[in-house]
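User: Design a sequence. Structure:
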């Protein structure tokens, strides 16, 4: 008795085999596959002839697998699933030959985090275009993502439940003071911090977090200035008008005349990437998300 040549088996035969096993009926399998019942019958008969075994009992109750046919179904399913994976990967590869990834971020993350990510991404996918929209307010980022004008956003505040998020970076708040003060310590005490008029941001993300933090101070704190731009805080501290408090990324690059100090108790803002839940993303967007999720290992 000659051995069976597996390479003579056709994919169409395996699809029909699995369909008949699932529906236990030749006509219903034909409807599902959108082919004629005679085509189903012919395929099963041909497959049985090639294998030299009977796969189904045909009768009044439909088509039921024989004891020989039963163990063949799972391998057939696995082959069909593997073929599906091959098609998915091929389609994904085609999608990565072009396309566009649209990013929206608050300004300091757009300045210090996104360039590193984009450079890494472009080394892998040079044909994909990446665009960046940098904005000032958290609410703008949510709105832009919601309106499908961007695919991925970077946040520094909690966002609503309609978004899926990943933490990518922790950014320490620092104090900026002139070098001329010649302070020896790198971390200020509450008493030392309270000795200076403070310059704070009015941006929602920084404002809420730092004000809540300062309320826990055992010393009386003097908030002397409130400004909207990070660069203005840096310039005012440079002129000796007070101690500027802002996230480290927002302070960079620090002018030579200024020195960074740590707060009495460390404080960080958590920077997260976000996408709309259940959104239909292109292969290019998924590829950028893969790069982004590995970003924790990168040191700024």
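Assistant: Done.
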């Amino acid at each position: 008795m000659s051995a069976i040549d597996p390479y003579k088996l056709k994919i169409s035969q395996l699809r029909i085999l699995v369909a008949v096993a699932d529906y236990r009926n030749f006509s219903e399998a034909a409807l599902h596959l959108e082919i004629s019942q005679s085509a189903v019958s012919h395929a099963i008969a041909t497959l049985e002839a090639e294998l030299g075994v009977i796969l189904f009992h045909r009768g009044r109750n439909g088509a039921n697998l024989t004891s020989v046919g039963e163990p063949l179904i799972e391998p057939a399913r696995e082959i069909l699933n593997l073929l599906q994976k091959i098609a998915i990967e091929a389609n994904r590869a085609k999608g990565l030959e072009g396309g566009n990834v649209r990013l929206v971020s608050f300004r300091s993350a757009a300045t210090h985090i996104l360039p590193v990510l984009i450079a890494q991404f472009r080394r892998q996918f040079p044909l994909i275009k990446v665009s960046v929209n940098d904005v000032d307010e958290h609410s703008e980022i949510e709105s832009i993502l919601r309106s499908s004008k961007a695919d991925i956003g970077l946040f520094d505040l909690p966002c609503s439940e309609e978004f899926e998020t990943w933490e990518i970076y922790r950014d320490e708040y620092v104090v900026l003071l002139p070098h001329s003060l010649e302070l020896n310590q790198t971390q200020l005490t509450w008493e030392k911090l309270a000795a200076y008029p403070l310059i704070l941001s009015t941006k929602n993300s920084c404002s809420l977090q730092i004000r809540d933090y300062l309320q826990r101070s055992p010393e009386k704190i003097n908030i002397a200035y409130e400004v909207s731009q990070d660069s203005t805080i840096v310039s005012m501290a440079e002129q000796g008008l007070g101690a500027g408090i802002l996230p480290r990324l927002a302070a960079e690059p620090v002018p030579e005349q200024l020195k960074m100090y740590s707060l009495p108790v460390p404080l960080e803002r958590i920077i997260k990437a976000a996408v709309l839940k259940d959104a239909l993303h292109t292969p290019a967007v998924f590829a950028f998300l893969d790069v982004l999720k590995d970003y924790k290992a990168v040191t700024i």
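The chain has three domains: 6-94, 100-169+270-297, 170-269. The chain has twelve helices and eleven strands.
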